Amino acid sequence: MALAAASTAGFCGSPQAVLQGSLQLGDLSSGRLSMAKANRMPFAGPGGLAVRAEQQQSLAESAATSRRAMLGLVAAGIASGSLVQTVLAETKAPLVGTPGAFSGIPKPVKIAGIAGSISQSAISKQLIHYAIKLAESIPGLEVEYIDIDSLPLFNLDLVRHGKYPDVVQTFMDQVHATDGILFASPEYNYTVSSPLKNAIDWASMEPTVLGDKTAAIVSTGWDLGGSRSQYLRQIGIRPDVYFINKPELFINVKRKVFDDNGNITDSDIEKEFRELLISLRNFTNRLRPCPRI
């Protein structure tokens, strides 16, 4: 049966809709489910009330038949050990469109914070640590600092028998365990910094490390606020990184960005930084696959 063979990973409909018979099988060869179109018959001509009563009775019988057929397919799926079996238990799940529709509260979005400078006093490092602080007041968001300072220069000679240097493997594992990335990227000579490019080159060696990750950039620099380091978006194309489009945040470092207590001096920048993190959280939730039942 098509329904019995369907995987719940791609089944983004309400189980209540199944029980009500509003979901139906489309092309049997495709094994897909679709929403039934409303059957609206014209109400006209003599004996209108009688015709309407007959139409309603016909529709009720059709709906009952559809429900019985659907429940039969669901039962067949249960008997065959299909993942669809728990659909019947989720009779009050909300419709598709809300993250965590089947599992209740969505898991927090975990973001890897990567600074593009290896200087211990770098503004990019301060920005990542400040993002961690901001995330504490943003529901459903966690930011973790991931160090790239000790990564060796990208060199395939360092990969022995398919194994990476320990520090590289640790870095890959840390990034892989997150849902998205926040890059604090300084502009070096009209482009991204060499440590940051180096980290991306290592991470891109394994498709699952960066693949399908979401990302956002806060850039720093003179004059244009490091805008040319936002070319990082182009670098992310090959490893399948998806950057948010807005807001964009460019920070001019000609003036003091942080005070002595580590707080951002400009309230507008702090507001924009918070909005960027919220946008990254929301974008990540939208790109998450349908939760498994």
From TrEMBL:
<dbReference type="InterPro" id="IPR008797">
    <property type="entry name" value="PSII_PsbQ"/>
</dbReference>
<dbReference type="GO" id="GO:0015979">
    <property type="term" value="P:photosynthesis"/>
</dbReference>
<dbReference type="GO" id="GO:0005509">
    <property type="term" value="F:calcium ion binding"/>
</dbReference>
<dbReference type="GO" id="GO:0003955">
    <property type="term" value="F:NAD(P)H dehydrogenase (quinone) activity"/>
</dbReference>
<dbReference type="GO" id="GO:0010181">
    <property type="term" value="F:FMN binding"/>
</dbReference>
<dbReference type="GO" id="GO:0009654">
    <property type="term" value="C:photosystem II oxygen evolving complex"/>
</dbReference>
<protein>
    <recommendedName>
        <fullName>NAD(P)H dehydrogenase (quinone)</fullName>
        <ecNumber>1.6.5.2</ecNumber>
    </recommendedName>
</protein>
<dbReference type="InterPro" id="IPR029039">
    <property type="entry name" value="Flavoprotein-like_sf"/>
</dbReference>
<feature type="domain" description="NADPH-dependent FMN reductase-like">
    <location>
        <begin position="109"/>
        <end position="251"/>
    </location>
</feature>
<dbReference type="GO" id="GO:0019898">
    <property type="term" value="C:extrinsic component of membrane"/>
</dbReference>
<dbReference type="GO" id="GO:0005829">
    <property type="term" value="C:cytosol"/>
</dbReference>
<dbReference type="InterPro" id="IPR005025">
    <property type="entry name" value="FMN_Rdtase-like_dom"/>
</dbReference>
<dbReference type="Pfam" id="PF03358">
    <property type="entry name" value="FMN_red"/>
</dbReference>
<dbReference type="InterPro" id="IPR050712">
    <property type="entry name" value="NAD(P)H-dep_reductase"/>
</dbReference>
<dbReference type="Pfam" id="PF05757">
    <property type="entry name" value="PsbQ"/>
</dbReference>
